[in-house]
Write a structure and sequence with these properties.
About 65% of the residues lie in helices and about 0% in strands. The longest helix has about 30 residues. The chain is flat and about 75 Å long.
Length: about 300
């Protein structure tokens, strides 16, 4: 009874006034989110409207009808299924190769001490800063010069088949070369946070270098590999520059080039292009949703050492 009376006599806790800085921060984040999402929402809105309606009433008008016909037309007229397959032939091997090679390089420079350890890591990081436009002319000539080995004696070099230019192999190699530095830098920083005692314990148990790499270190780097895999898939998938410069056959081009098939010579249906762009963007969204937890965890792990 006395406890109830004391509880009644105690004054109610004072309500703190709202923090103006927190309110301003939330307001700023809401505004930034709206600005960030507006182009996507506007693209979806235009993709759902027929071109006849927007041409008569304007793009800023309210819709009379919303339909999915633009998506069906874009899928069929641009032959997106074939270009999706072309992109997978390039993206999947490139992502696997760059993560595999970068993980081995990061393992070597982060877990062992040798003479050119730091120099090699700095070289990989510096080459990642090189703009691709700087080397496109010599690289284009190199791709044209590399041809298949001579099969018949006396076959002129000019008549041999190209080995890299206008080939999926050339696209995979150029993506691996340009993405290897960034992945090596990120994975090496992440592996440096792992205790050195793991290597020592593996050596005591009789494990070699490959066993230590594949069975001890690599299972611990899965969050970082998932984050890098998501980024690499998105970057290589969205590439347009290398495909434009190093591919010439229209049927071999990746999906980013398929949107050109939706443009006419004298007329462009912007609603149809918007629908095609949304279809092209779906795979990257699916990959991010599937690896979302690992992606966020990989971005935070390894940020601090200790």
């Amino acid at each position: 009874m006395s406890t109830a009376i004391l509880a009644r006599e105690q004054p109610a806790p004072e309500r703190r006034p709202p923090d103006r800085r927190r309110i301003a921060l939330h307001g700023f984040l809401i505004v930034v989110s709206i600005v960030w999402l507006f182009p996507l929402l506007w693209t979806i809105y235009q993709a759902l409207r027929p071109y006849s309606e927007t041409s008569n009433k304007g793009f800023l008008s309210l819709p009379d009808t919303l339909t999915l016909d633009n998506f069906t037309t874009a899928w069929n007229s641009a032959e997106l299924a074939r270009y999706f397959l072309n992109t997978l032939v390039i993206v999947v091997p490139a992502v696997i190769l760059v993560l595999f090679l970068a993980s081995m390089m990061a393992f070597a420079v982060s877990r062992y001490s040798w003479r050119f350890n730091l120099v090699l890591l700095m070289l990989f990081t510096a080459l990642n800063l090189l703009p691709p436009q700087v080397i496109i002319t010599p690289l284009f000539r190199i791709y044209l010069a590399i041809r298949a080995p001579e099969v018949l004696v006396g076959t002129p070099l000019a008549e041999r088949g190209l080995l890299l230019y206008d080939q999926y192999l050339g696209m995979v190699l150029i993506h691996v070369a340009f993405q290897l530095g960034f992945c090596t830098f990120v994975l090496s920083n992440y592996m440096k946070t792992l205790p050195k005692e793991l290597n020592e314990a593996a050596v005591v148990d009789g494990a070699g270098v490959w066993t230590t790499y594949s069975r001890v270190i690599m299972p611990l780097t899965r969050p970082a590999l998932a984050a890098l895999g998501t980024l690499q898939f998105t970057w290589i998938y969205n590439d347009f520059f290398w495909a434009l410069m190093l591919m010439s056959t229209g049927s071999k081009l990746p999906i980013t080039s398929a949107l050109n098939n939706l443009k006419g010579q004298f007329f462009v249906d912007n609603n149809l292009v918007a629908a095609g762009a949304l279809l092209v963007a779906l795979p990257t969204l699916v990959v991010y949703l599937v690896l979302q937890r690992q992606f966020i965890g990989g971005l935070t792990l390894g940020s601090t050492k200790g």
